[in-house]
Amino acid sequence: MRRYSVMTGLLVCGLLGTTPLWGEPPTPAVTANKININTADEATLAKLPGIGAKGATAIIEYRTTHGPFKIIDELKDVPGISDLTEERLGERRLTVGEE
């Protein structure tokens, strides 16, 4: 009976997308398929469509100089990141860490 309880618990964790207590927590830069623009490294940011290596460097320089992003729309203030790129990425792929 106990074996079924453990297996059921693991199944529920798998279905809910959580890790059991002994598992590793998700990395802070990528959570729930969203990339945290305040903690992501250059390589992670560069993989985003429309960002590339130059855009990733600009995002990191901007957040280093101005502090963490409070909202996704602040990406428009980063030199080299267009309004269209920010709109395409939007809240579907990015987070600032409030979640």
Helix content: 40-55%
CATH architecture: Orthogonal Bundle
Global Rg: 18 Å
Report the strand count.
3
Superfamily (CATH H level) name = AF1531-like domain
| CATH topology descriptor | DNA polymerase, domain 1
Task: Give the CATH class.
Answer: Mainly Alpha
Oligomerization = single chain
Give the overall form: globular
Number of domains: 1
Number of helices: 4
Tell me the span between the first and last alpha carbons. 37 Å
Strand content bin: 5-15%
List the helices and strands and how they pair.
Layout: H1 2-16, E1 30-31, E2 34-36, H2 42-46, H3 52-66, H4 83-93, E3 94-95
Parallel strand pairs: 2-3
Antiparallel strand pairs: 1-2
Question: What keywords describe this structure?
Answer:
DNA polymerase, domain 1; globular; three-stranded mixed sheet; 99 residues; mainly alpha; 3 strands
Report on this structure.
By secondary structure, this protein is mostly helical. It has a single domain, classed as AF1531-like domain (DNA polymerase, domain 1). It is built from four helices and three strands; from the N terminus they run αββαααβ. The chain has helices spanning 2-16, 42-46, 52-66, 83-93, and strands spanning 30-31, 34-36, 94-95. It has a three-stranded mixed beta sheet with strand order 1-2-3. A hairpin with a 2-residue loop joins strand 1 and strand 2. The chain is globular and about 25 Å long. The model is unreliable at 18-27 (pLDDT under 50).
